[in-house]
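User: quick one, fold this
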Amino acid sequence: MDAGVRTLEPKAGMFYADPMTISVRNIYFRVGISLSVLTLVTALSLSFIVFSVYPQVGAAAIQSADLFQSLISRTFASPYISFVTMLSSVLYAFITMILIYYFFEKTQSPEILFFALFAASFAFEALRVMVPLAAVDNLPSVYLVMSSRVLLIARYFGVFSLFAASVYAAGLGEQKQGNIVFIIAIAAMIIALGVPIDGLAWDSSLMMVSGYTDMLKMVEVVIGLITALSFFISAHSRGSNEYIFIGIGSLLAFLGRSVLLTADTWITPLPGLALLAAGTWIICVQLHRVYLWL
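Assistant:
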């Protein structure tokens, strides 16, 4: 083999007994791309109808429940921030899924499937347009509750997917990826369907107010820390320093996600999106480096 070309020696947990075939995995990628295109077009189309009522729904909103948001001066608050972050989230899903498909179309990487699911979950942020749409069309509150539950399912599904990527990296090679996706979906549904939602109140990010907010935020923080720790453990067990950077990238992605999705001031969307993009870039580049020569 030519000098300077990197090779990876087989290590425990490096190869998987039942990897999803690349062709099947790429179907997930294409579905994610189609979903993000559909939600992006829908959000942009509805924006012409609902944009004028954002000040109205913003005036009736409570502050988004997030520690970082509480530290920011309300001087920079704006009802249009939720519109900006909604479109940014859907655009993030679309662009990230396109890049993942392009760079990993022929690269076998169990972890990238779950990270792609994490990225695709941002497409469902378009459901936040239901609050201003309800104000325009005087929709019953049941539609707001239903859309909020779907959005909660997508958010928890995304968090669990990134966690699953880290567990796979740490050696969950015996489990079928399709089964793990199914388990993640069921877990997200159980949590989202069990959370009480107020159909008449929303926060400044235009997410309907739900119960157990503090507890669920703490759970997300714990999952984020465990995810990074699992990647760090993978760096040691698999002898691949790239997983150290992937762990750092996962922390940045979790932090950026939290800031972006709860932003309601002009100060927060750009830093949140920058952290999310930086984490995404680190994860994808390092995963591609790990599996490039396999």
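User: anything notable?
Assistant: The longest strand covers residues 197-202.
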